[in-house]
Every structure is written in C-alpha cells, then in structure tokens.
Amino acid sequence: MSGSPVIRARSLNKVYGAQGAEVHALRDVSVDITGSTLTAIMGPSGSGKSTLMHLLAGLDRPTSGTVLYDDLELSSLSDRQLTSLRRNLIGFVFQAFNLVPTLTVLENVLLPFELGGTKPSGEHREWILERAAELGLMPLLERRPHQLSGGQQQRVAIARALAIRPRVIFADEPTGNLDSRTGVEVLAMLESATREQDQAVVLVTHDPAAAAWADRVLFISDGRIVHDVGRTDASTLSEMVLELGGAR
Amino acid sequence: MIRLTLRELQVAPAQHVATLIVTSLGALFATIVIEADRVLASQSAAGGFLAHGFVRLLLDVLGSVFLFVAIFVSCIVIANTFGIVMTARARRIALLRLLGAEGRVLRRGVMLEGAIVGAAGGLLGTAIGVAVVAALIPLLTASGTFVPTPSPLVTPLLVAPALIGIASTTGAAWFGSGRVSTVTPLEAVGAGQEPTRTELRRRRRPWLVRGCLSLGTAMLVAGVAIGSRTPLGLFIAAPGGAVSFLGFVLGADAFLPPVLQVVGRLFGGSAPASLSRGNALRHPQRSVRSAVSLVIGVTLVVMFAVAAACFSTEAGAVAATAGPQEAASDAAFVTLVLGVLGVLIGFSLAIAAVGLVNSLSLSVLQRRREIGLLRAIGLERRQVRLMVLFESLQITLTGSACGLVLGVLYGWAAALTALSSDHHIGGYFLPTVPLPLVVAVVVSSALLAVVASLAPTRRATAVPPVAALAVD
Ligand SMILES: Nc1ncnc2c1ncn2[C@@H]1O[C@H](COP(=O)(O)OP(=O)(O)O)[C@@H](O)[C@H]1O
Ligand SMILES: [Mg+2]
User: Is A94 within 8 Å of B469 when comparing Cβ atoms?
Assistant: First the structure.
C-alpha cells in the first residue's frame, strides 16, 4: 500500500510574529509523506495543520528544519526554483478560490503548463481530457468559474492538480465549503488519484468524516504530531479529536 | 449618515488621497489658466506685441477651452477614483445594506465625502496656483520675456477654481458611486462571485452618445466652414469639438474595449500577457476610464501640436498676404502660447497618471488571492511583474493611440477654422503631423506605463503564495 517517501521533513519549527510575541505554530515536527498514500492531517483549529502543509508544499519557509523532495532541499532553492518545483511536482486544491475568474474551465486546467510556457504533448493532453471526463467536466470546459457550483469548481481544481501528473497533491480543507454528498465525491476522486496515479495526497481537514478516507491520519495538537495512525473510521477519529480538544 | 461619512474620512483618509491630489491639480490648473489669461492680457496691452485682435480672441477662447478641459479631466478621474473606492468598500457597504441602509442614502453620504475632499483640494490648488504665478512673474520679467507692468494677482474670479473643485468632485462622487446601488446585501455574507463583463456593462444611454457625436461633429464641420470666412468660426468649432469629444468619452465603454483587446494582442501569447489581457477587460469601466483620462491629455497635446505645425507649414502664405512683421509676431505669440499650454497639458497628464496608478493598485489589491493562487501553482515573481506591466501598457497604449487619432483630427479642424479665412491662408490644407510628436507620444505613454506600474508591481510581487489560502 505505501510507497517510498516523496517528502521527508525533519525537525520543522515555525515561529510567527516578532520577538516577545512569538507564536510557535510548529514544534520539532518530523514526518515522511509516502507515495500512493492518502495522508490526512487532523487537529483542532489553530493547531498548526495549515502551517505544516505550507512548509511541506514549499509555500512558506520553516524557521528551522529541512524539507526534502528526493534529494532536493527546499530551503536551498531560490524563489524561482521553488516556484518551478511547485509548478512541476505539486498539485493544489484549496478550500475556496481555486480558479482564476477570467479563464475558462479548460484554461484553468491547463494553467500550470501555460505558466511554465510549455504545452502538454498530444498524448498528455488526451490523458488530461480523459481525467476531465471522469470528473464530469466535459460539458463545462468553456464555462467560467462563476458559472459553476462549488463542487464543480473543486472538481476543476482537482483536474488541474492531476493534469501535471504531480508527485504529490495538497488539499487544504477541500470539502470545507461543500455539502456532504459533494464532499464525498471530491474525497473519492482524491483517493482514486493515490490508487491510479501512485500519487501522494495530503489532505488537511478538521472533519473526521473526511479523514476517514485516509490511509494514514496524523494528529496535530499545539504544533506537535501527537498521533500517527493507519486507516481509522470516522467515529473513532471523532473521539480522538474530542480527547485532544479536552486536553487543550 | 453624516456621522458615517465623517468616520470614513477620519478612519481611512488614505482612500481619498488620489481624489485630493486630482482636485488640487485641477484647481491649480484652473487657477493658472485664469491667472495666465489676466497676466498675458496685461502684458500684451503693455508690451504691444499682440497687435491684432484675432490673437487676443484666440487666447480667450483657448483659456475657456482649457478651463473646461481641466474640469472635465479631473471629473473623469475623480469619478473613477470613487468607483475604485466604492469597490474596495463593497463589503462594508453590503453590511450597511444588510442592516437596512438604503442605497440612495448611502450614496448621498458618498457625495458629502466628495464635497469635503473637493473643498480641501480646491483651496489647496488655488493657493498653490497663486503662489506659483506670483513667483513666476518676477522671474519672467527679469529674464526679459515680460515687460514690467503691474499685474494684480487676486481677482474675484479665483473663487471659481475652489467652487469648481467642490462642484466637480461632488458630481464625480455621485457618478462614481453608482456601484453603491448595485451592492447587494448578499455580498456581506461573502458568497458573492465576481460578476462577468457582460453583467457589469450597463446601458450607457446610447442616445446621449449618438446625440453628442452627431451634434458635435455637425458643429465642428460648420465651424470649419465658417472658418473659411472668419476665425470667429472657432466659437462654433470649439464647443462642437468639445461636444463630439464628450460623446466619445461617454461612449468610451463601447468604443475602447475593442481597442484594448487589439492592443493586448500585441504582447504575444505568454502566460503573463494572456493573464493581463483578461485583467484589463475584467473591470472594463475601470480600464476604460483610466484610458480615457489619458486620451484627453494626448488628444490635447496632439491637437495643439498639429494645429501649430499646420500654422508653421502655412506660415509662408501668411507672410505673403499679411507681411513679414505680422507673421513674426504671430509666430512669437504661438510659441509663447504653446509654452503655457504645454504646462497646462502636463497637468491633465499628471491627473491621468494619478488615475492610472490608482486603478492598477486596486486591480492588484483586489486580486491578492488570485495572485497568491497563481504563485502557488507556479507563476514566477518575474512573471507577476510582467503581468502588471502589460496591463499598464495595454491601458496607456490604448489611450495614446486613440488620443493620437483624435488629436490629429481636432488639431486639423482647429487649424482650418483659425487659419483658412482670407485674412490668413485663404483656403483649405492637409494636416501636418510632426513625426517626432508621434514618437514622443508613444514613448512617453510607454514610460508612463512603466512608472505607473512601479508601486502596484511592488505590491503584487510581495504577495506570498499562501495568500491564496487566506480565508477572510
Ligand atoms: N501568518 C501568521 N502570522 C502569525 N501567526 C500565524 C500565522 N499563521 C498562523 N499563525 C498562528 O499559528 C498557529 C497555527 O495556525 P494554522 O497552521 O493556521 O492552524 P490550523 O490550520 O490548524 O487551524 C495559530 O496559532 C495561528 O494563529
Ligand atoms: Mg487551517
């Protein structure tokens, strides 16, 4: 089930704010993210989930510690190299505002190529359109984001994330704005990416029902990883969350 | 309501800095026109170098035309600025609407803000204008350009710039705050999606546009026709030109987007270029108004340069009929007037520049999350910079291209009206378009684009990729 590590994070610390008013968002976090695995990051609000995701995805730099993609150490990269790494190796699905409003659905899906000044090969393009078809986007390709429902927008974001065949997809609360049925569809699509494309998917969520889809669940509390468990059902996860909330 | 208005001014005065600058520039502009007219009049009386009445007449006509233009340009920019401020304030407005405030009442509050800022700017500009003229007269007298003659500075007419400042800013605030009525209470809840271009484009009173265009053009043509008998045709041609130009400006929402689109294609198919093409047309009203304020400045520059070039080209004919001395005196006067006009035109360009910076800044500010998203999925900083620069270039090049065409037409019409009577040339002629002028306009509008995009670019490149994730 689990592949080799795609990302190795070691002793990550993140401190926000000026001296005297520091917030330790992450304390000494070490974790491996493996391929073909849906990893959920759970924890109470303000526990450091998003911060961890930002560091793993090269969106932000740690105060100390290292993030390795294979042998590439993120802190040694320039902003430009980091941007190119995100463009080529990482897919993103955010909670809201995933799409560029001036572009059509198809243009949004192909945007990473456009940004890199490249074009997918004919075969690659076919493949992308197949994924779009699986996501039910074919009738929507010429629409613009404001003409889509929230669930449709998330599916476009997933298609864009898949399009570059990334090593890893990060999804921050991707179901946060969706009704539960649409949310389940989105989660199923993310899960199938790990099965069919051997991708690592990192899912940040505070929702036990969403985390129950994961092969592995990391619990964060107060900037530390406090539990690291395999596939777990939603009610057990809820209890664990409640326990953590009580401990705070 | 008044309390809310004062609160806005007190808590966030920064949102009106652009309006204050523009109103002061406008009032300064008007003050200098008034003062220049007075001083030049007293100079011509004392110096005797303006022998025939035609030149004085020309001076008075130009003075009034420029006063009108100053107000006109600043109204457009202020209306645009208020539109921008209202967009930035949409959430707050929506909340007030949600709590039961009527759009009409809110809009009256905005007008009051305009009146207060307009009064401040009007007074400031008038004071600076009087000070500048007071400082210039001794300088020009010392250098021998002016003869020493008493030139009283303070005239009751100086109330005009301040009053005009208040009136135009209030009116422009009303025009620019149309957005207030379209803010729905729902926007406060935050679910609002960005409206499309077609939804945004409102009916722009096409009959008014068509009426202005046809009436103005008819008057312009009539003026030119009368000009073949007497330069008094200017009194019909000038308002005709203004009215037809007003028609162009009112209809700019329809005329300019296609030009913007064509200009946008010049930048090629790179990612920053295609993104900026979309951005420039995303709030077409905003881009169009920024471009229009530029069209006005460029049209004026080109109009006067072309008129002057026609004058020089046709000067030989003048010399033949009117004698070399009169021709020399005319030429000297034209040089002087062009110098003064150059300064005045500089104002309208400065006003346009303020409007452009403002518009681009907001464009960046509103797209913070989108820029963050683009950065997250792989847009480099360099490309962000290019994207903003392209948007800026798209607006300035559109403005200057339209200004060039209109300016040549109006300048030609003005030259025909003023010079084709028997008194001068005695016949029609083709326009003379100085090539250096065309180059200068294109180069300076490109420069303006670069300068105007500096601050917005800094803001845009500072947006971190995590901004895409911000939940606000
Ligand atoms: N940009 C920031 N500046 C200062 N503090 C921040 C910033 N981002 C997050 N924090 C703080 O870091 C902690 C962790 O935040 P975050 O990672 O967003 O938590 P979560 O996603 O689990 O809700 C919180 O206490 C939060 O207030
Ligand atoms: Mg979070």
Answer: yes
Would you kindly state where each structural domain of chain A is located, as residue ranges?
5-247
Rounded to the nearest angstrom, the minimum Cα separation between B197 and chain A is: 10
pTM over cut 0.80: no
Nearest to B466 among A54, A87, A100 (CB): A54
The answer on pLDDT for B198 being more than 50 is no
Highest mean predicted confidence (pLDDT) among A113-117, B50-54, B86-90: A113-117
Identify the band that residue B272 occupies on the pLDDT scale cut at 50, 70 and 90: confident
* Ligand 1 atom 18 nearest Cα: A50
pLDDT at B159 over 70: yes
How far is the C-alpha of B67 from the C-alpha of B118, rounded, in Å? Answer: 17
Q: Which fold has domain A5-247?
A: Rossmann fold (3.40.50)
State the nearest Cα–Cα gap between A133 and chain B, in angstroms. Answer: 22
Where is pLDDT greater, at A145 or B426? Answer: A145
Q: Could you identify the residue written with the tokens 């979309």? A: B278
Residue B132 has phi, psi (to 5 degrees) of -65, -45
User: In this structure, are residues B384 and A94 in contact, taking their beta carbons and an 8 Å threshold?
Assistant: no
Domain ranges for chain B: 10-192, 200-204+251-472
**Alpha-carbon distance B379 to B367, whole Å?**
14
Residues A180-184: contacts with CB under 8 Å, at least 24 apart: A180/A209, A182/A149, A182/A150, A182/A151, A182/A154, A183/A209, A183/A210
Q: Residue A96: phi, psi to the nearest 5?
A: -150, 170
**Which ipTM was obtained for this model?**
0.79
Output the pLDDT for position B193: 45
